[in-house]
Amino acid sequence: MSWVDQKEKYEAVARQIDPSVRLTTKDGWIWRAIAWLLFLFSFGQFKRATFLTRYATTLGPLQAYPRGWLWLWDGIIVHESQHTAQARKFGLGLGPWAGLPLMLLVYGILFFPVGLAYFRYRLELDAERRSWDYLLENGMADEEYVYRNAERLAKNLSGPAYLWSWFRGSVRKGCLKVAEKVVEKHFRP
Fold first, then answer.
1. What is the full DSSP assignment across 146-181?
2. CA 2 to CA 38: how far, in whole Å?
């Protein structure tokens, strides 16, 4: 049994955020190529197998998950769907595929020198904010989860998995600030 057996159910969650989302597995050559690039750009610290087996990835409307995952969680689906919504915005109304080149420029190339990818950090934080909102609105998480997840996100974004996108202290402070705003919105209106 794999998440693939319930693909339609998961796509329904994703399409609440963006109607164009399509889910697939990370079995194709494009995902292996991305894994190699991340391995090279992280100076060998972000292993290819880690990317292919432990991370979800979005390109335009296409969300890719490891086939070996038994199930998907709404939080990660919403996070990845927000990346599709971001690509749609970059596409200026022409759709997520049209926005993908600009999003890739902003996310992956602009300010590429490792440690200076501020926009990568901000796009990831925006996607996680959307996930937190969704989970809290649907009773699937609590305040503690949001803060714990903010800490995990900060560690990831300032480490090799995201090519040291921005400075650790600033990333942590930014993640906790957004977490506080989300918690206030839901628990202290």
1. HHHHHHHHHHHHTSGGGTS-S-HHHHHHHHHHHHHH
2. 26
Please state, in angstroms and rounded to a whole number, the distance separating the CA atoms of residues 77 and 104. 20
Question: Residues 134, 78: contact at Cβ < 8 Å?
Answer: yes
The predicted-structure confidence for 46-79, as pLDDT tens digits, reads as follows: 899 999 999 999 999 999 999 999 999 999 999 9
Separation of alpha carbons 132 and 112, rounded Å = 28
Residues in the chain: 189
DSSP 109: I
Distances (CA, A) of 38 to 58, 70, 140, 174: 15, 25, 32, 24
pLDDT for 119-154, tens place per residue? 888 999 999 999 999 999 999 999 999 999 999 999
pTM of the model: 0.89
DSSP annotation of 105 reads I
Beta bridge partners, 25, equal 65
Instruction: List strand residue ranges (DSSP E) for the chain, in order.
Output: 22-25, 57-59, 62-65
How many Cβ atoms are within 10 Å of 189's Cβ, its own excluded?
5
Residue linked to tokens 């506080």? 180
Place of tokens 């693939």: 4
Backbone angles phi, psi at 185, to 5 degrees: -60, -40
- Which residues have CB under 8 Å from 104's CB, separation 6+? none
